[in-house]
Amino acid sequence: MTHYVYIPGLGGMFDPLRRVALWRWRRSGVQVTLVPMRWSNRAETYEQKYTRIAKNIDAIPSGRIVLIGESAGGAMALLAFSRNPARISGVITICGYNHGASDIIPYRRWRNPALHPLLVNVDKVMPDLSLRQRQQITTLYSTKDRTVTPAHSMIDGAKEIVVHTPGHLIAIARILSSGFKKIIPN
Length: 186
Fold this sequence. Notes:
With 186 residues, the protein is α/β, with parallel strands linked by helices. The chain is built from nine helices and six strands, in the order βαβαβαβαααβαβαα. Strands 2-1-3-4-5-6 form a six-stranded parallel sheet, sandwiched between helices.
């Protein structure tokens, strides 16, 4: 059995909507856990956020584990994968900001203090992933996303799925609400 660990992006106020979408996934038999990130919490480092994910991974007794990282959660999923490649079977990013620390605008750095240091770290570990590890990553992204551009989502060697929905939030909402079997690759 595969267990999915869902890592949300910056909009913590959308967690109730994420829970509804993931509840629908669970009703269709998918094992999924949402790990809140609370990105705007100024007192919490990205390592503390990572620790919350690691504890959730450790609590899964057996089977395959796939991380799903949405937006900024994509970088966190990639960090967790780089630290636990034997335990994590794959990563799926949904409109993921998967690399590019130098492109984070000052307001986002200020509003979400753990984001920039996380991306600096991810930018360092990504080149160390083997081709086989990169092939375990799937990126879903919109070519019309201006918040997280395709260049920040795409990963050399990863499987890519283009979503033809304009806008960042709308693309994420469409992906989450379209149903698990339509978005998760086999």
